[in-house]
Amino acid sequence: MTSLDPVFDKDGVRLTVDDAVATVTLTNPAKRNAQSPALWRALTEAGRALPGSVRVVVLRGEGKSFSAGLDRQAFAPEGFDGEPSFLDMARGPEAELDATIAEYQEAFTWWRRNDIVSIATVQGHAIGAGFQLALACDLRIAAEDVQFAMRETSLGLVPDLTGTHPLVNLVGYARALEICATGRFVHAEEAERTGLANLVVPVDQLDAAGRDLAAALLAAPRDAVVETKALLSGALSRTYEEQRTAERAAQGRRLRDLAGLAD
Q: I want to staple 67 with a disulfide (CB 3.0 to 4.6 A). Which of 130, 135, 201, 211 is the partner?
């Protein structure tokens, strides 16, 4: 990785920016980048701190694992320092619990903004919240040692950090249900075959593959990529005729812009 001064570096998250490419790094390899509410707030802050020049965001984890998921301390009676435990939250009013989970989800939502393309580079464990964070990104490059798993059901919970929608879109309902309900590992070959991973590379080539894909994404004009991403991300919710209409409108905007006739 190129050495850059971080925009910020706190609570297990570091954000660096190199012109049009931002890198968000999970920085607690000793705990396999286990996640906490403080880390989620830092991820949300990273999204808000992106300069307007950024077109591609690369997400990576230091160490042997991308992220082993939720830090189990969340379920201890004492919870995290300065944070209510999950058990205490469950005993509170339902509206407060819903609002808290919605706040946590914000860390996982901004990666699909139309003005950026996000790439998760994933090695080792990507479990539970780690799997969902990888799924939050537009694209995923997996190392050959990757182990994806959705383990929430084994804890009596459900995946609630925005991962269910992209998982179903990528692999289909039946496979998504089987992956979530069994909590089994999805390894590199299956991930690439089923669309969970766009590319699989050796572990020592993971960062370079992320840089190469970022460079390829930057080769096209920004506005064309933004319009194309919006078209594709909305396609599943539109009918065929609605998508045709959306294509015509987007192309009209691009042609007017290229002709210098933009509004």
A: 130
